[in-house]
Structure formats: structure tokens, C-alpha cells
């Protein structure tokens, strides 16, 4: 998960996690809640369309992208102002239209642009890194019927890396949420 | 969908009980009477001061309603579903626009107290003003005012009546009709509000001009409108009305609009200022010069901080938009700052330094309370949400991702 998967994209061989399949969004949401309430953190749900409220049901934390991106935007504003101040007052002193060497008024558009540029770029890059992208393969791709979650399947997976994971008790928990089927996902 | 569970737990009543309605109406009528009594007293004491104070209040209340007209049309054009639970309240505020035409009458009566260009002998001595006489003359001013209000009233009636008719028959045709009128309506709204801002506010300094001024004023109107909505919805909520229908998700979306209009106003206000600063032409810079001296600079600074930095930084965070108490406070801050903004646009044309006057309060209270009475009286016997709208259920279970 997270940044590390970018640098170490290979998942250890063996069991990756347990996956359960459900017949619709309502049962999937109920299963997510049960798994969340049992204390599992390393979980993920898959559905052909966005399901409102599934983040809450899974207990996903709020994205960190915005909080980090705002630091980048402040950095952008600072760089822009310093650059214009330095070039205007020290680096390339030029009198243009009788204006002062440095003033906030004409500096704001460039400050605005650099603020937006850095926050937008950092948001996209952070989003990819925090999602563990880019990566070329994922153990889930080998799971049975997984390619159909883009069509008509609803699936929930609990990863082995979760501290609470135990093949028997986790399977029992999943069986209790009325899935259509469960399977062990292997990484190879 | 999972949403059905939430929907079945909805137990909001969609009609106000007569007692609550009458109580609020009486309070608003009382405020309006106080406002107009204060205005009458002020008028007898000082004509000039009355009309100037009233001008701020008139612009304030009219622009707030027009902000509603903008949002209502945008909501129809974008087919927005989240806004359905708050849309009836928007419609009632928009339906008060024809009453703003009545509020315009004192402005027409005070034309000589307000507008330098209405004094023919002075205009003739002034080269620039005598060139502008084709546009800035009393007949044109009144005719344009009537045309503006006719267009706005027509649009407001056309769109709000569709929603009320849909309550009865639930026909999607009403939604389509409202959307169809919204497209040309939005174009006309922007053009006419821009011209109205030129007429009513920019021509207070008749030598000065700024093509972006109409947007500057309208952006403030949208800002106050969405904050007014925030306050009205939360006041209803505090009294247990629509508390389950307008959820934190809807407040989050209203908060997004507050944030958007904050940024938009700042963008427009800064663009206007920067171009004038850069070109450095005396006939343009004078407008900011008088607002940078004699104590007015305090308001200039207050606008930079209070109209941009403070609300922008507070509203930026997702957490603050979902914090109802904070948003309630911010909405009042917005209403206060927008008054300061209009004060800053209007009053420096007449006074070398800020001279607050008790009439400022009544000049604001009278039009605002009058709009409030009209707004509230429309609640009687009508559902609090557009019960005929096909997207109502979708709106009730709306969630921000």
C-alpha cells in the first residue's frame, strides 16, 4: 500500500487475501460494514459503478492529497513572489512604464498561476503515488471472475497484510455476510 | 440502492404549521414597519442622507434576490439533484424580485439627491458628462429600470411557477420548461444585471467607468444570496423544520458555492483593480484614490482581508464546510462584509471620510425586511420542498464523495 508499493511493486508469493462476491450493492455495503466493525483496515471493495456511502461503510480515512497539496500551493506562491521580487529589485532592474521595481499588483497573476500549477501537479502526482500507481500487475487480476467487476460483479477483499487477518476466522466472518461465493486470492 | 434505507426513515413534515408561519410573518412585518418608520423619520430630517443610505439597502436586497435568480437558473440548466431539497426556499426568495421593483421607486424619487448627471446645468458645464447625456439621463434611467425589473420578474415568475405546478401533477414537462427558459434567462440576467449595476451604482461616479463593474456587483449578490440560504436553512433546522431533508451534505454543497463565489468576487475585484493600477489613467484611478484616503482605506483593507483572505482560507477546508456552526457564523460574516462592500462602492462618492449614520441601519432594514415579508408569506400552504420534483428522493439521500 501507499508509497512503498511504487518502489517495491512485487507482492510476496503465496496468499494475497480473501475475496467474497455479492449479488448487489446492498449486500456489498452490509458486508463492508461488518468487516469494518470487525476491525479490518486493509480492505477494498469493487463494483461496476460508484456506490454512495461505500467509503463510510469501508471506514476509509479521508484522502491526504488535499492536505499535502496545500503545502505545495503555498510553496508555489512563495516561489513566485520571491522570484518576481528578486528579479525586479536585484537581478534585472528595469523601469517599465514608470512602475515600481516590485509591487504586489502586477505580481498577483503570476503568483496565482504558480500556486495553481504546483497544487494541481502535486495533487495528480500525490494521487498516483498514494494509490501505489503506476504498477503493471496486481494479484487481484488473477482472482476468479475479477475482470467482471467492471460489468456486473460486486466484490470485497481482505488482504493478508491486515494484522487481524487469519485465514479461518476471516473466512468465517465473510461467510457470515451472505456472499455468493468466497475465494482465496494467490499471488504468483 | 442503499439510499432507500435512508429514505424510509425520513419523517420531515413538508408543510409549515399555521402558528409558526404566522409568528414569523408577524415578526418580519414588525421589522419592516420599524424600518420604514425609521426611513420616514430619516427622510424628513435629511433627504440626501436618506436616499444614500437607502441606496445601499436597496442594492443589497435586490442583488441578493438576483443572486437567487442566477442560482435557480444554473440549477435547472445543470440538472442538479442535490439542490432540490433547498430549491423551494430559493424560489420563494426569487419570487420577491417583483417587490424589488417597488423598492426601486424611492431611488427614482431620489434621483437628484443621488446622481450628479441628473443636474442638467452641471452636466452642460462638464465636457465628459455632456457627451454621456445620451445614456445618462432621467428618462433613460427610469425606462431601463422598468425594463430590467420586467425581465427579471418575468423570469422569476416563469421559473418558480413551473415548480409549483409540478407539485400538483409531478410532470417532467414543467422541469423541461423551466430549463428551457433558464438558458436565455441566464444570458439576459447577466446582461441586465451588469447594465443595472452601471446605471444604479457606477453612475454615482459618472466620470468613472469599468466594464467589469457589473460582474463585480453581481458576484457579491451571489455571495450574499448563498449565505442567506445558509442562514435560512439553518434557522429552519434549529426549529426542527426540514432537519432531515437538508443534511450536512447539502450544507457542504452550499458551502462550496460560498467558497466559489468568494473566489469569483476576489478574481473580478482584483482584475478590475489591477487593470486600473496598471493603466494608471487619472480618470480611472480616481475611483480608488478617493477610497484610499480620509479613512476609507480602512474599508479597503477590510475588504481585502474580510472579503477574500479570511473566508477563502476558512472555506477551503472540507471540514469547515461540514461544520454547521462555523458555516452559520461565516454566513453572517459574509452578509456583513457584503454590506461593507456596497457601502464602499456607494458612500465615498458623497463623503470624504466615513460618516456612519443611524439612517444607514434603517435604510438597510426597510428593504431587507420587506423582501423578507414577501419571501415568508409565500411559504403559506406550499410544500417546503418541491414535492413534485422527480429528483427529490435522489436529493434527500445525496452524499458528497
Keywords:
heterodimer, A: 188 residues, alpha+beta, Alpha-Beta Plaits, four-stranded antiparallel beta sheet, 46% helix, B: 401 residues, mainly alpha
What is this entry, summarized?
Helix content of chain A is 46%, strand content 14%.
Describe this structure in words.
The complex is a heterodimer of chains A (188) and B (401). In chain A, 46% of the residues lie in helices and 14% in strands. Chain A is an alpha+beta fold and 188 residues long. Chain A starts with a helix and ends with a strand. Chain A folds into two domains: 113 residues, Alpha-Beta Plaits (2-Layer Sandwich); 66 residues, no CATH class. Chain B has 401 residues and is mainly alpha-helical. Helices cover 76% and strands 0% of the residues of chain B. Chain B contains 19 helices and no strands. In chain B, helix 2 packs antiparallel against helix 3, helix 2 runs antiparallel to helix 18 and helix 3 packs antiparallel against helix 4. The longest helix of chain B is centred in the N-terminal third of the chain and has 32 residues. Chain B is globular and about 70 Å long. The N terminus of chain B is likely disordered. The chains are: A alpha+beta (188), B mainly alpha (401). At the A-B interface, helix 2 and helix 5 of A face helix 13 of B.
Task: Annotate the secondary structure layout.
The complex is a heterodimer of chains A (188) and B (401).
Chain A lengths: L1 H6 L6 E9 L2 H13 L5 E4 L7 H5 L6 H27 L12 H27 L23 E6 L7 H9 L5 E7 L1
Antiparallel strand pairs in A: 1-3, 1-4, 2-3
Helix pairs in contact in A: 4-5
Chain B lengths: L2 H6 L9 H28 L1 H32 L5 H11 L2 H7 L1 H5 L1 H4 L5 H6 L1 H5 L6 H32 L2 H29 L12 H26 L9 H32 L2 H9 L5 H21 L1 H4 L2 H23 L11 H20 L14 H5 L5
Helix pairs in contact in B: 2-3, 2-18, 3-4, 3-10, 3-11, 3-12, 3-17, 3-18, 4-10, 5-10, 5-18, 10-11, 11-12, 12-13, 12-17, 13-15, 15-17
Overall spatial form of chain B: globular
Based on CA atoms alone, the radius of gyration of chain A comes out at 24 Å
Order of helices and strands of chain A: HEHEHHHEHE
Total E-strand runs of chain A: 4
Amino acid at each position: 500500500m501507499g508509497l512503498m508499493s511504487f518502489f517495491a511493486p512485487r507482492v510476496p508469493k503465496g496468499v494475497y487475501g480473501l475475496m467474497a462476491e455479492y449479488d448487489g450493492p446492498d449486500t456489498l455495503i452490509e458486508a463492508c460494514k461488518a468487516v469494518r466493525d470487525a476491525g479490518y483496515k486493509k480492505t477494498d471493495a469493487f463494483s461496476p459503478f460508484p456506490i454512495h456511502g461505500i467509503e463510510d461503510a469501508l471506514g476509509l480515512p479521508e484522502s491526504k492529497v488535499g492536505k499535502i497539496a496545500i503545502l505545495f500551493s503555498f510553496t508555489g506562491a512563495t516561489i513566485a513572489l520571491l522570484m518576481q521580487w528578486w528579479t525586479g529589485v536585484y537581478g534585472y532592474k528595469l523601469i517599465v512604464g514608470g512602475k515600481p521595481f516590485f509591487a504586489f499588483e502586477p505580481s498577483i497573476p503570476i503568483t496565482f498561476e504558480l500556486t495553481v500549477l504546483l497544487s494541481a501537479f502535486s495533487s495528480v502526482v500525490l494521487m498516483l503515488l498514494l494509490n501505489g500507481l503506476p504498477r503493471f500487475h496486481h494479484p487481484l487480476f488473477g482472482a476468479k471472475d475479477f475482470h467482471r467487476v467492471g460489468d456486473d460483479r460486486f466484490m470485497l477483499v481482505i488482504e493478508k497484510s491486515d494484522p487481524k487477518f487469519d485465514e479461518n476466522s476471516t473466512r468465517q466472518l465473510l461467510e457470515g455476510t451472505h456472499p455468493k461465493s468466497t475465494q482465496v486470492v494467490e499471488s504468483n | 440502492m442503499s439510499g432507500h434505507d435512508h429514505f424510509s426513515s425520513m419523517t420531515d413534515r413538508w408543510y409549515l404549521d399555521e402558528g409558526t408561519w404566522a409568528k414569523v410573518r408577524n415578526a418580519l412585518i414588525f421589522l419592516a414597519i420599524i424600518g420604514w418608520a425609521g426611513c420616514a423619520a430619516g427622510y424628513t430630517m435629511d433627504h440626501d442622507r436618506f436616499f444614500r443610505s437607502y441606496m445601499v439597502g436597496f442594492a443589497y436586497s435586490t442583488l441578493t434576490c438576483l443572486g437567487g435568480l442566477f442560482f435557480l437558473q444554473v440549477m435547472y440548466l445543470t440538472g442538479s439533484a442535490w439542490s432540490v431539497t433547498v430549491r423551494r426556499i430559493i424560489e420563494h426568495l426569487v419570487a420577491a424580485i417583483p417587490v424589488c421593483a417597488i423598492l426601486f421607486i424611492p431611488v427614482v424619487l431620489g434621483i437628484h439627491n443621488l446622481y450628479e448627471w441628473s443636474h442638467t446645468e452641471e452636466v452642460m458645464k462638464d465636457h465628459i458628462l455632456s457627451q454621456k447625456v445620451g445614456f445618462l439621463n432621467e428618462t433613460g434611467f427610469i425606462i431601463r429600470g422598468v425594463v430590467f425589473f420586467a425581465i427579471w420578474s418575468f423570469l422569476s415568475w416563469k421559473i418558480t411557477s413551473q415548480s409549483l405546478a409540478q407539485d400538483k401533477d409531478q410532470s417532467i414537462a414543467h422541469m423541461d420548461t423551466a430549463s428551457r427558459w433558464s438558458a436565455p434567462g441566464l444570458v439576459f440576467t447577466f446582461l441586465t444585471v451588469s447594465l443595472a449595476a452601471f446605471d444604479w451604482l457606477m453612475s454615482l461616479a459618472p466620470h468613472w467607468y469599468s466594464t467589469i463593474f457589473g460582474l463585480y456587483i453581481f458576484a457579491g449578490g451571489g455571495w450574499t444570496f448563498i449565505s442567506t440560504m445558509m442562514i435560512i436553512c439553518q434557522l429552519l433546522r434549529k426549529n426542527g423544520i426540514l432537519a432531515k431533508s437538508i443534511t450536512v451534505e447539502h450544507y457542504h454543497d452550499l458551502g462550496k458555492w460560498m467558497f466559489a463565489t468568494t473566489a469569483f468576487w476576489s478574481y473580478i475585484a482584483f482584475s478590475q483593480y489591477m487593470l486600473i493600477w496598471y493603466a494608471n489613467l487619472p480618470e480611472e484611478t480616481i475611483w480608488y484614490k478617493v477610497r484610499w484616503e480620509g479613512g476609507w482605506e480602512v474599508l479597503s483593507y477590510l475588504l481585502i482581508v474580510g472579503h477574500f483572505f479570511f473566508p477563502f482560507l476558512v472555506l477551503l477546508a472540507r471540514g469547515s464546510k461540514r461544520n454547521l456552526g462555523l458555516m452559520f457564523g461565516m454566513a453572517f460574516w459574509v452578509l456583513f462584509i457584503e454590506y461593507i462592500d456596497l457601502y464602499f462602492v456607494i458612500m465615498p462618492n458623497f463623503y470624504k471620510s466615513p460618516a456612519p449614520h443611524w439612517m444607514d441601519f434603517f435604510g438597510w432594514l426597510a428593504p431587507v425586511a420587506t423582501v423578507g415579508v414577501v419571501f415568508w408569506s409565500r411559504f403559506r400552504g406550499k410544500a417546503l420542498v418541491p414535492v413534485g420534483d422527480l429528483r427529490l428522493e435522489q436529493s434527500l439521500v445525496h452524499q458528497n464523495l
